[in-house]
Design brief:
With 379 residues, the protein is an alpha/beta fold. The protein has helices spanning 13-27, 41-45, 68-82, 93-109, 124-127, 136-145, 154-163, 208-224, 240-249, 265-269, 286-293, 306-309, 324-336, 338-355, 358-373, and strands spanning 2-6, 31-36, 51-54, 87-91, 116-121, 148-151, 172-174, 195-200, 230-235, 256-260, 274-277, 297-301, 316-319. It has two domains: 2-178 and 358-378, 3-Layer(aba) Sandwich (Rossmann fold), CATH 3.40.50.2000; 195-355, Glycogen Phosphorylase B (Rossmann fold). The radius of gyration is 21 Å and the shape is elongated. Bound molecules: ligand GMT. Ligand GMT binds at residues 8, 10, 12-14, 17, 92, 122-124, 152, 177, 205, 279, 281-286, 304.
Length: 379
């Protein structure tokens, strides 16, 4: 198949899913083009046979900001005209599903081959941004007009139907996120001090300052019994400064490490005793899945699709979203009992292998594309 993939060039989340999907489809001998306004970090390493199109557009004094979405749409249309695409797969509804539909309609108007649009909903494109009154009418249109719509969890599928009245849940297929089990695998265990790790873009929804507060509580308990631990924070973003300020205020400079953006995630995830997710929303929790594949137990909030990824009490420990003390208690129990956290880590690896193996999930996308091409599937 000739497949176009349209995504945000993000360090995590949908940018990673789209990049890994592009690589896997190319490995399966499809012709794959990826379109974005910058190089997605996961593809920058080794794009292999994926042809990456970075379209940024030209600035012009009349524009408040350069409309790179229009430049991307023009590039896709050009490519479709010269080489042809069977499927255009948009990741994240805003603006990509809208852009993909616009290209489909421009192609039809120009008498080009039909182009099928698949939209994958990732999370905040439904729960926050796409649901904002300034974008909601267009998000609803994008979902209704796509040839197929997928959501990364059952929870996100239900939330989509609830947030957008008239959008039937039955028209949305759940295809979960996936992990490369070769790349993300358990490494040698670490005999240093017990550690918890967190990876994110430090947006408000990730609540990194709240996580630092919870770790401070946990450390207080551990220290009172002569035990030690550290929290490793990977990534960067808007709440980085506040998280650092709280760590300083609590006198945790020697216990909270800020590593900034990192590429070699398995080396950071596998030695940890716990992976922490303190989010208020999490449609899936891809970074938690990557940690699970590395054999690391998850301590998280019981929100969105996270309970579909982490089996509470087996592959990790979840607690209600506002339960700071409960989160701290879960941290204490994984950091003080390394045998228990190692057992949960092994269960996490087993669950990642059974349910979220890259090869199995990519087959589900290929099946969806095939059905669309055969003309017996539509949203
Ligand atoms: O929706 C976002 O916050 C951004 C998005 C992304 O593009 O990075 O993350 C979402 O998509 C990921 C990949 O499907 C999911 O693993 C994340 O859980 C989800 N984030 C949220 O729902 C907050």
């Amino acid at each position: 198949m000739r497949i176009g993939i349209l995504c945000h060039p993000t360090y995590g989340g949908s940018g990673v899913v789209a990049s890994e999907l592009a690589l896997s489809l190319a490995e399966n001998q499809h012709r794959v083009h990826l379109f974005s306004h910058d190089m997605p970090p996961r593809l920058a390493r080794a794009p292999g046979p994926v042809e990456v199109h970075v379209a940024q557009g030209s600035p012009y004094p009349l524009f408040h900001s350069t409309p790179h979405d229009l430049a991307i749409m023009s590039r896709i249309l050009d490519l479709h005209r010269s080489e042809g695409l069977d499927v255009l797969h948009a990741h994240y509804a805003i603006p990509h599903a809208v852009s993909a539909l616009q290209v489909r309609s421009a192609a039809a108007q120009a008498g080009l081959e039909p182009l099928r649009v698949v939209t994958t909903l990732h999370g905040t494109d439904i729960t926050l941004v796409g649901n904002d009154p300034s974008y909601a009418p267009l998000t609803r249109y994008a979902i209704a007009a796509s040839d197929a719509v997928t959501a990364v969890s059952e929870d996100l599928k239900e939330r989509t139907a609830a947030n957008f009245h008239g959008v039937p849940a039955c028209g949305i297929e759940v295809i979960p996120n996936f992990v490369d089990l070769e790349e993300f695998r358990p490494g040698a265990s670490d005999s240093g001090r017990p550690s918890a790790v967190h990876v994110s873009n430090f947006r408000r929804v990730k609540r990194v300052p709240w996580l630092v507060e919870a770790f401070a509580l946990a450390l207080e308990d551990l220290s009172s019994r002569g035990l030690d631990a550290e929290l490793v924070l990977v990534g960067d973003g808007p709440q980085h400064g506040e998280a650092r300020r709280i760590a300083q205020q609590r006198g945790l400079e020697d216990h909270v490490k800020f590593l900034g953006l990192r590429d070699a995630l398995p080396d950071l995830l596998s030695p940890a005793d716990a992976f922490c997710v303190a989010s208020t929303e999490e449609s899936f929790g891809l970074s938690a899945l990557e940690a699970m594949a590395c054999g690391t137990a998850v301590v998280g909030t019981s929100v969105g699709g996270l309970p579909e990824v982490v089996e509470d009490g087996v592959s990790g420990l979840l607690c209600p979203v506002d339960d700071l003390e409960g989160f701290a208690r879960h941290l204490v129990s994984t950091l003080e009992d390394r045998e228990r956290s190692a057992a949960m880590g092994a269960a996490a690896r087993e669950r990642a292998t059974r349910l979220f193996d890259r090869r199995q999930v990519v087959e589900q996308y290929e099946g969806l594309y095939q059905r669309l091409l055969q003309g017996n599937d539509s949203a």
